[in-house]
Structure formats: C-alpha cells, structure tokens
Amino acid sequence: xxxxxxxxxxxxxxxxxxxxxxxxxxxxxxxTRFPPEPNAYLHIGHAKSIYINxxxxxxxxxxxxxxxxxxxxxxxxxxxxxxxxxxIRWLGFDWGDRxxxxxxxxxxxxxxxxxxxxxxxxxxxxxTAGEIxxxxxxxTEPGKQSPYRERPIEENLxxxxxxxAGEFPDGSYVxxxxxxxxxxxxxxRDPVMYRILRARHPRTxxxxxxxxxxxxxxxxxDSIEGITHSICTLEFEDxxxxxxxxxxxxxxxxxxxIEFARLNITYTVMSKRLLLKLVQDKSVRGFDDPRLPTLSGxxxxxxxxxxxxxxxxxxxxxxxxxxxxxxxxxxxxxxxLNQKAQRxxxxxxxxxxxxxxxxxDQVEEFDAMNNPEDHATGxxxxxxxxxxxIEQDDFREEPPPKYYRxxxxxxxxxxxxxxxxxxxxxxxxxxxxxxxxxxxxDPATRGGDASDGRRVKSTLHWVSARHALEAxxxxxxxxxxxxxxxxxxxxxxxxxxxxxxxxxxxxxxRVEPALADVPSGSRYQFERMGYFCVDPDSSPGKLVxxxxxxxxxxxxxxxxxxx
Length: 563
Ligand code: ATP
Ligand code: MG
Description:
Blueprint: H1 12-22, E1 31-34, H2 44-59, E2 63-68, H3 78-91, E3 99-101, H4 106-118, E4 122-125, H5 129-135, H6 153-165, E5 174-177, E6 192-196, E7 210-212, H7 214-224, E8 229-233, H8 240-250, E9 256-260, E10 263-265, H9 272-280, H10 295-301, H11 305-314, E11 322-324, H12 326-340, E12 342-344, E13 346-347, E14 350-355, E15 364-369, E16 379-384, E17 387-391, E18 411-414, E19 419-427, E20 434-442, E21 459-460, E22 463-464, E23 469-476, E24 503-511, E25 523-526, E26 530-534, E27 543-549, H13 554-562
Parallel strand pairs: 1-2, 2-3, 8-9, 10-11, 12-25, 14-20, 18-21, 23-27
Antiparallel strand pairs: 4-5, 5-6, 6-7, 13-24, 14-17, 15-16, 17-22, 18-19, 19-20, 23-24, 25-26, 26-27
Helix pairs in contact: 2-11, 7-8, 11-12
Residues 35-37, 45-46, 48-49, 232-233, 262-263, 270-273 line the site of adenosine-5'-triphosphate (ATP).
C-alpha cells in the first residue's frame, strides 16, 4: 500500500449518513461537530476525528461546528482553547461562525435538569463520592439504591436550587439521574448529573458552583446545536443508552451517536492526560516538542497539514480498534516532502577536507538542482573552494568490506563538483583523532563526470568551509522504546519506556550559504541526510533545524518483504 493507491473509503459512517439522507431523517441535513475538552493540546488522534467530522460535513453539503466541551474547570485553560483553535485552522478546517462552548448552555442545562426532577427522573443525593462508588456495585453485582433516592420532588427541586445558589460545600450533594441501579450497564446506574465545585472557569469565571458531568452535558450540547450525527470514539458505545435516555426523557431534539475506533500509532501515546504528564515532568520540552504526536509538535517537527490529512484519509474509518505502524505515517510524510522539499547540502558531523592541488584563493560556483521531482524549481549556485567539510561518516581510514566512500588512496565524486582522491590524513597527536583529510582533485572531472568514462562508487555531499553557515541540528528518534508503551508491567508507568535518546543535538553542523535568512518552518532535503525544518528557535546568525525524518522509507521495505 502506498498513499497513492487507496480511494476514499465507503465507510460505515458514510453509509449511515447516506441512508439517513435517503429516508429524510433530520430533513436530509448533515451537521457534525468536533467537541474537544480544552484540557491540553490536540494530538494526531484528534486530527482523525477533526478530519472525519469536517470532511463528512463537506462531502454531504453539511456543516461542522467547533465546540469546546468546557465542563471541567479544574483542568481547562484559555491557553488550551487558543492552541486548539490554532491547530484546527492549521489543519485547514473552517467552522465559519459556529464556534460554541458548552458553558454557553449552562443555564439551559439547568432548566433541563429541573424538568427531569419535576418528572421524578432525577434526585439530589447526599452519599459521599466513596459511598456512591460502593453503592454502584460491579459488573457482576447489581448496585444498591441510595437512601435519598425517594426524596419527594419538591425537596429535590429545593435542594438543587440551593446547590446552584452556593449554599452547600463542595462535594456535599450531587444531582443524579433516577434510572436503574440493577442495570447491567454501569453507566445507567443513576449516573451523577451535577456536582458542586468551586473552581474558576476560563469563560464563566465564578458564576457557577455546580458543573454538569460529561454524559449529561454532551447530548444536550448536540441537541441544542441541532447536530444530526454525533460522531465519537468507541469507548462511548456503552454510554449511548444514557445519551439516548436523557434526550428521550426530556423529549427534545435527538441526534444520533455513532462510534468509531480511535487512532493509535506504534511507539507513542495518544492521550492528552499522558502527554500532559510528559510535559509536566519535563521529559520533553513542551507540548510542541517535535517528538510528541501533538499537532503543535508535528508542526514544529516539519509535518505539513497535507500529510496529516492524507494519513487520516488513508487509515480509514474503522469499527474495531487497531494500531497504525508509525512507519506508515513517516511514509506519508516522505511522499509529501519528496515532492515539495528543496534539496540542499548540509553536513551534520563535519570533517575538514583539504584539496591540496586546488588554488588557495580560487572559488568556483556549481549549478545544483533544487528538486529533481520538480524541474520548474530550477537550480542554484553552490560555492566550492580548497577547504571543504564532508560528513565524518563518509571517510574511513581502514574501510570495512563494502564501504565504498572515501578512504586513503580511493577516488570518489563530490556532488556537482569534481572527482577527488584521498592522499593523506592529519591526526591530532594526542587523541589520535583525524582532524583533516587531504585529497587531490582531477580538473578534467569538472561538474562531476570524468571525460574518460572512469567511474567511482560513491558521491559525497560537501560544503565549502569559508562559505558555509553554522547550524544546530536536532535529531529525533521514536519517543518510546516499546511498540505499545501503554502495555506496562505492574508497578511501572508508561514513562518507564520513554526513550532517553530520542533527542540528539548537534551544534557544529554546516550548511550551504543558500540557507542564510530562511524563515522558520521552511523545509529542505539535506542530500543523503534526510528532511529538515527550520525551528522557531532560529535567530539571525543562528540556524536551528529539526530533522523531520530520514530518507530511508521503512514502510516500503516492510511492504516489499510482505510481497
Ligand atoms: P484524550 O484521551 O487524548 O484525552 P479525549 O477523547 O478525552 O482524548 P476530547 O477532547 O474529549 O479528548 O476529544 C475530542 C474528540 O476527539 C472526541 O470526539 C474524541 O472521541 C476524539 N478523539 C480523541 N482521541 C482520539 C483518537 N485517538 N482517535 C480518534 N478520535 C479521537
Ligand atoms: Mg474526553
């Protein structure tokens, strides 16, 4: 499978929607929403949900809302709201004027709660949180009814009003739905609808001291906004009967909840809670650390929105949980960058190379191709002089078998320039380290080809020492050493598998002068070394690059082996 040969899936969600349009359910309307809780930054799993909701709305001439599910003020912050908006815009989706907040509906939700109390379908409980948990029973044992369950309606109305008015301390009372303590579905055992919580809300401030629980609030938000298909992930399947119960008991407009499988990717974690832990304990540099699967991290790493959208499309919509190989994500990345990224030469671990027979003050310029995948991008000039840098790895004093790069007595090609032959090395007397390689060049190979048809087995990239710019390059490896870091041994935590070598910083790299003043976010292929993106830490005179990904496509290799 490559990203080019899969067509958009005929998935089960689109099938449901087509059927609903045919039967004129919801008057043929399609209206979806993306409902993040602003308690952290978004990750690529959210991108999948964003992609599904917005692209479905788009395909069926419908609408998609952005709605913040801000019902839990102790964990939510304006910083997260702003970051989420920025990330969704960057992905390329637009919610028009339909930016909503659950907190805008708090008043309406309270009115609905009062209606349920009046119907005898909700009651104020004063069991403690621990008692409520105990009374709930287990999957194998039925629950036990609270002694407060049969409180008269008038008393419930009065207590709920006073809960809201701030007469009681936090945690002293809750409002619960009166459903069925014997239900095999634990979610139906009189779930809590409201709790008392004095916490400053990023939008409503101190106006409220009771906050609605997710299950109670979510269906109401969907109903109020006229959502038709409320698409969520599989873990909410068992909550659907409750979603339906609330809307049916209230007799209000009733959208349909549809669940699909979460996106998981190997060697990373896909949960805001866990990502927050990595940020808080400083395992990573922040939510936008290029090792994280957050959208801000992927953006900083150098991913384009197109890559993420393609990846979401090609991984499809499934009803059963699966984990996608990270090699497939990187394959999508390489395909995109291969088309778009300008080629340049950059040396990550420089080794000085002196061309003994090249005139001291001479400088030549060679034409280098900007992108062989896109000839319209043309060529640029690359300066060449007597002292160059090559990659340390491209020289061996004692070459092992099958090592075809530079070694004493051996001739290789310098890309776009000349054939050179190694004639000697200079070592540091004390450390024995090679400090300089000496070569001679053959003027008859100008441009990189010998007129006598003589061949060499390798071509090296290089930069001219006096023209090159210094740069810092950050190399990344997978953030975890285990395919599924969540599969932890007892007594440990997913962080036990965090890869401490996932970041390597090289501070004395050299790149060709064409890269002076490139803006942050620009992407390049350093020939033979991978794709790189200018980091926002760059400043005039100090270039900082992130390696986006190396060149070798392990996904294609896996596919070939399978064939
Ligand atoms: P997390 O577990 O990372 O905190 P969440 O589901 O609690 O995620 P929300 O802010 O509630 O985070 O998510 C907003 C929407 O994104 C929800 O509809 C949720 O189902 C969806 N979503 C979250 N994670 C994934 C994922 N890995 N794959 C697909 N959709 C996801
Ligand atoms: Mg959630």
